[in-house]
Amino acid sequence: MVNVQSNHRMNQHGVLEIDGVTSTELVKQYGTPLMVYNETAIRQNCREFKQTFDQSGLTYQVAYAGKAFLCMDMVRLVKEEGMSLDVVSGGELYTALQAGFPVERIHFHGNNKSVEELEMGIDAGIGCFVVDNFIELELLHELAAEREQKVNILLRVTPGVEAHTHDYIMTGQEDSKFGFDVGNGQGKLGVQLALQKPYFHLLGVHSHIGSQIFETEGFQYAIEVLARFLQEVREESDVVMSVLNVGGGFGVRYTEEDEPLPIREYVKSITEAVKFSFGQLSYPTPEIWVEPGRSIVAEAGTTLYKIGTQKNLPGIRKYVAIDGGMTDNLRPALYKARYDALLANRANEERTEVVSIAGKACESGDMLIWDIALPPVRMGDTLAVFSTGAYGYSMANNYNRTPRPAVVFVKEGESRLVIRRESYRDLVRNDVLHHGVEAVVKSQ
């Protein structure tokens, strides 16, 4: 059975509609490949996080993790929903600033922030840096001291929790490129060093235990570990920290086999664990920050492709090629990620063939979906792939000099372009062409 979100429907003509806009209209107006975001669904997800936190009685911030998908119109939407914003690069920070996002609600992550990126954040006056390692701790303070400007920081710590997720997206275990390890003493040393630096205001700690997590036990255990850590810091340094950031990683549904919890269940579990763990230690309950990204946008996104050639290998499989693939959705090649799909223009027809969906890149690994049942496909049909809203466009690339797709938002029967389709002219914009050896010599 195909995983079709509740805000999708098939009309009487067997055509897929996304929040009141037919896929055929979208393809005609914007072409393919096309990434379509349901704005109503995105806003509903944002509000579910905030409403559930409101019910907890705790002070909190919900920061959208921009790495999942970011553009200026997405920044505008996050701003309108009253959320904070998590950025992990100078490019994401620049996008936020250009879109007029409130700087005091920007959190800057990353394990290797450059001098230029740190300076950009300091000069903009962003709300918080999440410091990842000892070198950054020294470098950020040097830059802040040069400006005589105090900055807010969190220390990213690894609590030693291995979430039930793909090995490539586990980030809270001890052997990780991210953060100060709690188990080997690096976490406490990082705190001590930060407290000695006059241009730092150490708000608290941050941890992220992984991604695409379908249970709450990992969060509960991490909160227990971090509460004990903060209690030990208080006993040793007489410092009470005011912020605990437990990251993101909340699971979403890509196929029918996936069984994520509702957003409210993740939030309730986190808030209850915080109240219990800190209550047991008589530690002042900190402000709780979370960083949902995938759970905000993944299921709100659908990618539309045009079907092209086919190759039938009797007794083996039938390949059906689309006009996109790993250049707009790298996750199947990177993570062996799985997706559901259907023929958007013939959605009600019986699915009598099992085919495999191949991308058009010159890589045998460019396979979007293995073994999916569809009606007999025809060249020119539209394939809709669901739950592509996270880490699709943000990982899109120009391999084989393929232009990146257009992105549109739809809402209540209307669509609008938020990212233009790249052109061939865009692909050569930064190229430098030298006319022979003579030109090269003269340039030297």
Automatic annotation (TrEMBL):
<dbReference type="InterPro" id="IPR000183">
    <property type="entry name" value="Orn/DAP/Arg_de-COase"/>
</dbReference>
<keyword id="KW-0210">Decarboxylase</keyword>
<dbReference type="InterPro" id="IPR022653">
    <property type="entry name" value="De-COase2_pyr-phos_BS"/>
</dbReference>
<dbReference type="InterPro" id="IPR022657">
    <property type="entry name" value="De-COase2_CS"/>
</dbReference>
<feature type="binding site">
    <location>
        <begin position="291"/>
        <end position="294"/>
    </location>
    <ligand>
        <name>pyridoxal 5'-phosphate</name>
    </ligand>
</feature>
<feature type="active site" description="Proton donor">
    <location>
        <position position="362"/>
    </location>
</feature>
<dbReference type="GO" id="GO:0008836">
    <property type="term" value="F:diaminopimelate decarboxylase activity"/>
</dbReference>
<keyword id="KW-0663">Pyridoxal phosphate</keyword>
<dbReference type="GO" id="GO:0030170">
    <property type="term" value="F:pyridoxal phosphate binding"/>
</dbReference>
<feature type="binding site">
    <location>
        <position position="294"/>
    </location>
    <ligand>
        <name>substrate</name>
    </ligand>
</feature>
<feature type="binding site">
    <location>
        <position position="363"/>
    </location>
    <ligand>
        <name>substrate</name>
    </ligand>
</feature>
<feature type="domain" description="Orn/DAP/Arg decarboxylase 2 N-terminal">
    <location>
        <begin position="41"/>
        <end position="298"/>
    </location>
</feature>
<dbReference type="InterPro" id="IPR022644">
    <property type="entry name" value="De-COase2_N"/>
</dbReference>
<keyword id="KW-0457">Lysine biosynthesis</keyword>
<dbReference type="GO" id="GO:0009089">
    <property type="term" value="P:lysine biosynthetic process via diaminopimelate"/>
</dbReference>
<keyword id="KW-0456">Lyase</keyword>
<dbReference type="InterPro" id="IPR002986">
    <property type="entry name" value="DAP_deCOOHase_LysA"/>
</dbReference>
<feature type="binding site">
    <location>
        <position position="391"/>
    </location>
    <ligand>
        <name>pyridoxal 5'-phosphate</name>
    </ligand>
</feature>
<keyword id="KW-0028">Amino-acid biosynthesis</keyword>
<comment type="subunit">
    <text>Homodimer.</text>
</comment>
<feature type="modified residue" description="N6-(pyridoxal phosphate)lysine">
    <location>
        <position position="67"/>
    </location>
</feature>
<dbReference type="InterPro" id="IPR029066">
    <property type="entry name" value="PLP-binding_barrel"/>
</dbReference>
<feature type="binding site">
    <location>
        <position position="249"/>
    </location>
    <ligand>
        <name>pyridoxal 5'-phosphate</name>
    </ligand>
</feature>
<feature type="binding site">
    <location>
        <position position="391"/>
    </location>
    <ligand>
        <name>substrate</name>
    </ligand>
</feature>
<dbReference type="Pfam" id="PF02784">
    <property type="entry name" value="Orn_Arg_deC_N"/>
</dbReference>
<protein>
    <recommendedName>
        <fullName>Diaminopimelate decarboxylase</fullName>
        <ecNumber>4.1.1.20</ecNumber>
    </recommendedName>
</protein>
<feature type="binding site">
    <location>
        <position position="331"/>
    </location>
    <ligand>
        <name>substrate</name>
    </ligand>
</feature>
<comment type="pathway">
    <text>Amino-acid biosynthesis; L-lysine biosynthesis via DAP pathway; L-lysine from DL-2,6-diaminopimelate: step 1/1.</text>
</comment>
<comment type="similarity">
    <text>Belongs to the Orn/Lys/Arg decarboxylase class-II family. LysA subfamily.</text>
</comment>
<comment type="function">
    <text>Specifically catalyzes the decarboxylation of meso-diaminopimelate (meso-DAP) to L-lysine.</text>
</comment>
<dbReference type="InterPro" id="IPR009006">
    <property type="entry name" value="Ala_racemase/Decarboxylase_C"/>
</dbReference>
<feature type="binding site">
    <location>
        <position position="335"/>
    </location>
    <ligand>
        <name>substrate</name>
    </ligand>
</feature>
